[in-house]
Amino acid sequence: TNKYKFETILVNIIDDSIALVTFNRPKALNSFNYQMGKELLDCCRLLDKDDNVKCIVLTGSGTKSFACGADIKEMANHDMAYMMKKGHLIDNLCDLREIEKPIIAAVNGYALGGGCEVAMICDIIVAGENAVFGQPETKIGTIPGAGGSQRLIRAVGKSKAMEMILTGNPIDAQQALQFGLVSCVVPIDKTIETALKMAKQIASLSPIIIKLAKVTVNNAQESNLTEGLNIERRIFHSTFALKDRSEGMNSFANKRKPNWTNN
Ligand code: CAA
Q1: Contact 114, 140 (CB under 8 A)
Q2: Does residue 143 have its Cβ closer than 6 Å to ligand 1?
Q3: Percent of the chain at pLDDT exceeding 90
């Protein structure tokens, strides 16, 4: 039985180890209303605690849109005091960065505004050929609010990020690949399949090691090189306190499959 029941997102557990989470507001091109943002965060937090789940894949229902950003109609009449409160929509999207398990975005169609930002919070982005990435907030009188101004520049460099944010013009999948925003571009009907294949590979490894790898790589965006190298060194050393590190190396030396215990 599926214990992950929500109204605006669908959750499928695949091979007992991968959670495929689908944004399901197709009539609004999967834009995030408050409920969808809350359900997404709640769901990912539950999945993060579920020992069976090793990897999360996020995608949009249909192929026209991954997610079209915040629900503009819902947001239109909010005031500053409301937006500054903890736990509103954008705040919930930002908090996805706290999820410790790997998250892969399988993006077909529009990833705009908060949709692009959620994709960038993910660890890997797999793009379908029709994917479109953009931060069009300036066109509706605001600026990116869920990390877009910070993560986009780190992904594509200053000039392209500035062009995208100041003009509001999106880029297509090939440009996103060229600029390093996405990890690969695949035919539209292979996007989810490709993401699930990556997820399966990750799920076959030691979860505790994967968790350390994710935190170490993410740290690179938040520190200078010397500090990042020092942290990598410490975390690398700390893997030698884990049984799964010993199991990985000894199974290789003894030509057998590793038996990960998440210890
Ligand atoms: N919020 C609310 N509704 C949205 C939406 C959004 N972000 N994006 C699309 N929709 C709705 C449309 O209003 C429309 O609804 P109705 O049928 O009731 O009119 C439905 O989805 C279908 O959309 P369109 O008719 O517009 O479809 P299209 O193919 O003509 O255009 C589009 C597609 C170019 C993506 C266009 O929908 C669009 O520009 N959407 C807005 C994208 C955007 O600006 N996103 C940023 C939001 S702000 C944000 O995210 C803040 C942040 O930093 C976190």
Answers
A1: no
A2: no
A3: 96
Determine if ligand 1 sits within 6 Å of the CB of residue 29.
Answer: yes
Q: Which has the closest alpha carbon to 34: 64, 80, 81, 75?
A: 75
Ligand 1 pocket mutation, candidates 23, 31, 117, 167, criterion most atoms within 8 A of CB: 31
Sort residue 82 into left (φ over 0), alpha (ψ -120 to 50) or beta: alpha
Q: What is the pTM of this model?
A: 0.97
Tell me what the mean pLDDT of segment 147-176 comes to: 97
Q: In this model, does residue 1 exceed pLDDT 60? A: no
Q: CB atoms < 10 A from the CB of 235, how many?
A: 14
Tokens for 251? 């199974």
137 touches ligand 1 (CB under 6 Å): yes
- Rounded-to-integer distance, Cα 181 and Cα 166, Å: 18
